[in-house]
Amino acid sequence: MGERRFSHLRWKDRLKIEKMLKEKRSVREIADALHVHNSTVYREIRRGMTQQRTTELVDVEVYCPETAQRKYREGLQAKGPDLKIGADRGLAEYIEDKIINDHYSPAAALAKIKEEGRIFSVEISEWTL
Questions:
Q1: Which of 114, 17, 116, 117 has its CA nearest to residue 67?
Q2: 119 and 88 inside one domain
Q3: Which of 3, 19, 86, 110 is the one with CA 20 to 30 A from 46?
């Protein structure tokens, strides 16, 4: 059974989608040309749909790669879990003080917390820090 590989569409892929849609190519043809699944193309088209006014002053929905790229970037920025350290402001301030003012390494700041027996609501590893 083949291994599934996922990759994000690139700007040039979005331009190709726009061109092929204008050429009235099918979603299957577009997917084959980009080496992606049909559903990837359908999602991308939905992401990039925007209203455009023609020279006859008629509003039509068209795929716009700029709109799709903007929405893609917005989605990336919103992605990911909240920072664990942000759940305890006191911990964040303590570590920040040790690193900036006392010139501790992240590992040394964490070790100092244990050495002093300090208790915070969140416990983080050196890797997380």
A1: 17
A2: yes
A3: 3
Q: Tell me how far apart the alpha carbons of residues 28 and 58 are, in angstroms, rounded to a whole number.
A: 29
Per-residue pLDDT of 9-44, as tens digits, reads: 999 999 999 999 999 999 999 999 999 999 999 999
Domain carrying residue 47? 11-78
> How high is the pLDDT of residue 1?
45
Same domain, residue pair 97 and 108 = yes
Number of domains in the chain: 2
To 10 degrees, what angle do helices 27-34 and 11-22 make? 150
Task: Check whether residue 87 and residue 50 sit in a common domain.
Answer: no
> Structure tokens of 42?
């359908």
Distance CA 84, CA 87 (A): 6
